[in-house]
Structure formats: C-alpha cells, structure tokens
C-alpha cells in the first residue's frame, strides 16, 4: 500500500497535469434548457393596440398578452348581426306564408340560404376578432418582448417569447463510448457555479444519432420540481456534469 501511494506521489511530482487530467476525465460541460418554450406571434396584421406582457412577467395559460386593433371588426359584426335579425324574421314569415301557399318553396329556400350565409360571415368575423387577441399558450414566464405597444405587426411576426419554468432539462454532449453505458432513469450530478449548488437530474433520453465530428451523443436529463425550486435554475445556465459522482 505504501508503494502504491509513493508511486502516485512520484507521478504527481514528475507529471503534475496527469493527476488533474484524470480527476477531470469524467466531467463535461452542461447547459440548462427550457423543455417547453414558445415564441408567440400575431395572427393577423394591424396595430398592436395593447401589449400587457413584459419581460419577467409570470402569466397563466390563456392570459391575454396583447391585442391587435379590431374595432372595425366589432362594427362589422354588429352590422352583420342586425342583418341576421332581419333575415331571420324574413325567413320566419316566408315559412308561414309558404305553409299557406302564399310563398314559393324557392323563395323560402333563398331566405334560408341568405340567413345561413350571414351566419357564416358572422362566425368568420368572430374568428378574426379572436385571432386579434394574443394569449399565453401555457403558464410560464415572459423572457423577451419583440415589439412595443402601438407598433404595426404582420401575421406571423413574433410578439413575445416565454417558457415554462416548471419544465427545465439539462443537456450535455457525452463521448459515444461513455454515453452508451448510461441508462434511462439513471441519476447524475451537476454543479452550477452561478448558484454554487449541485443539482441532481434523471436521464430522460438520448439523441437518436452520434455527432460524426465530435463522436458525441447529446443526452438530456430532467430535473424534478423540488430540485428546480431549490436550485432556482434558469435556461442558459452553464454547469458541469460529474459523470460517475455519487
């Protein structure tokens, strides 16, 4: 035993980098990613009359984040609704007259068709009104705002970006020969200097291919809610995977 430790001591004197390299041989850079992230875009052209969401805001699923101007659509709906009321009365009267033989089947069919067309036009306007409202697709945190209130937006233009802080994952590129020895569900230890904490993650999935340039496999770990709350991880934080650590 004494000879063994003497040998290690001698190597450390002659080649001090060897011991340090061995200690770091199973440590790999890792980064935190948002598992659920979305860029929410406008669904129609127009001036952004409201933008209530700002960077750092926590929002619930379905929350109204912004509104594209649509008062013209509201006025159009009101006009079409008034027309529908008239057409409905007309169709009702023609139904009664037709029963008494005072209106033809063709006249009644046309009145019903006009009413049906009007109903579809109202639903189309209602759909456009709904598309004017920009809502949160899930509960989360706003991380970016790409436009300011009252600016003009086009359909498909990004307005805000958000992520779900309850669903974060840690990603690391592992040499293929080491990655194949890992198993789904296996727990690993990561260290994040930004928060001076160790975090445990459960291996979730491997990327289905090897990077031919680096001969590595991208591996994803999931962090449970309690650990997330304690560590306060944020997307983009960089850490170190301590592969093989207890």
TrEMBL record:
CC per GO annotation: efflux pump complex
Name the UniProt record assigns to this protein: CzcB-like barrel-sandwich hybrid domain-containing protein
Any one GO molecular function term: efflux transmembrane transporter activity
Annotated signal peptide: 1-25
Q: Locate the CzcB-like barrel-sandwich hybrid domain: which residues?
A: 38-161
Q: Which UniProt keywords apply?
A: Signal
Q: Does the keyword Nuclease apply?
A: no
Q: Extract the Pfam families matched here.
A: BSH_CzcB
What the record says about family reads: Belongs to the membrane fusion protein (MFP) (TC 8.A.1) family.
InterPro entries, A to Z = BSH_CzcB-like, RND_pump_MFP
- Cite the NCBIfam families for this sequence: RND_mfp (TIGR01730)
Keyword Signal attached = yes
């Amino acid at each position: 035993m004494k000879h063994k430790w003497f040998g290690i001591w001698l190597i450390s004197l002659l080649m001090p980098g060897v011991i340090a390299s061995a200690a770091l041989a199973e440590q790999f850079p890792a980064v935190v990613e948002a598992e659920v992230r979305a860029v929410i875009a406008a669904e129609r052209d127009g001036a952004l009359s409201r933008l209530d969401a700002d960077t750092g805001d926590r929002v619930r699923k379905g929350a109204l984040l912004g509104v594209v101007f649509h008062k013209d659509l509201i006025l159009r709906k009101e006009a079409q609704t008034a027309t529908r009321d008239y057409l409905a009365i007309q169709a009702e009267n023609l139904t009664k007259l037709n029963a008494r033989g005072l209106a033809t089947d063709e006249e009644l069919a046309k009145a019903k068709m006009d009413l049906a067309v009007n109903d579809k036009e109202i639903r189309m306007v209602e759909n456009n009104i709904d598309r004017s409202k920009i809502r949160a697709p899930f509960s989360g945190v706003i991380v970016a705002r790409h436009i300011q209130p009252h600016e003009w937006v086009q359909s498909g233009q990004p307005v805000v970006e958000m992520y779900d802080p309850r669903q974060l994952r840690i990603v690391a590129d592992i040499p293929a020969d080491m990655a194949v020895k890992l198993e789904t569900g296996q727990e690993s230890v990561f260290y994040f200097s930004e928060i001076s904490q160790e975090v445990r993650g459960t291996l979730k999935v491997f990327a289905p291919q090897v990077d031919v340039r680096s001969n590595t496999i991208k591996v994803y770990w999931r962090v449970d809610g309690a650990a997330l709350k304690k560590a306060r991880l944020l997307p983009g934080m960089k850490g170190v995977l301590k592969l093989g650590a207890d």
